[in-house]
Design brief:
By secondary structure, the chain is mainly beta. Helix content is about 5%, strand content about 50%. Strand 5 and strand 6 form a beta hairpin.
Amino acid sequence: MMRPGIAVLLYALAAAPVQAQERPSRAPQTDQTVPVSRGMRLAIENYAGEVIIHTWDKDALRVQARHPARTRINIRTGANVVNVSTNGPAGSVDYDITAPAWMPMKIEGQFNYVTIEGAQSDVSIETVRGDIVLKGGSGSITARTIEGEIQVEGARGTINLSSVNQGIRVTGASGDVAAETTNGSITFTRMDSKTVGAATINGNVSYEGTLADNGRYTFTTHNGDIVMTVPETANATFTVRTYNGEFGSSLPLKGPERSEIKRGRRAAYTLGTGSAEVEMESFGGAIRVRRAGAARTGR
């Protein structure tokens, strides 16, 4: 039989997140602004909490933080970097930071929920548990989490995204994009990229966007479907393979009759000149190629 004290403690822990959401936002214990110059980058180390970064057109970095009373926020400015970290007892720290849009950023920690809006330079985010939301970013962009979802919007450059137990969503991106997860789906929307790769074990892969001439697109899943929605005017060669699913298209592809395709064997279809290379492989799911703007009919 559970003792009353333990029962009360467990109830309090379970109710804590709800109570925290209901409390009004308190004033930050730390609010400091430091000047920065172009060529400097921002590096944040936070064990647990929330990191929210906005951007402005000032050459200054404002750090606001909510944290336990005995925790101290360290802002150290060097020749090329501004380091933000903490001293004191272990505990969560919630940051609300405003940085120049041009400033490269690197955020690391164990249990962080990270949101960055308006970045116009390199961005690197790594956390063990927590969601990542990135709006903007240009150049080298990296987002990695194990227990968290990744959402990227409007990024440009070399984009590398990795999760383990959640999905990945990319919207309006351009450049070279690679996304990988184990237990989650990968969704691309309004894409304008020449190189895109996506791989998942237990999840679907969905792509909607353009196919660049001479571009390369690779989509693989073990237990999921692959759906591509592209313009009929695209020029691409689609190489498909499915072991326990079917292949279908609403586009005028040229290739072998579907009845002639043996399960597990590769089949190639062309659209237009066939310039772009598109590889799609699923072990346990269906593969579909759809015309952009057409209603979803399941074909």
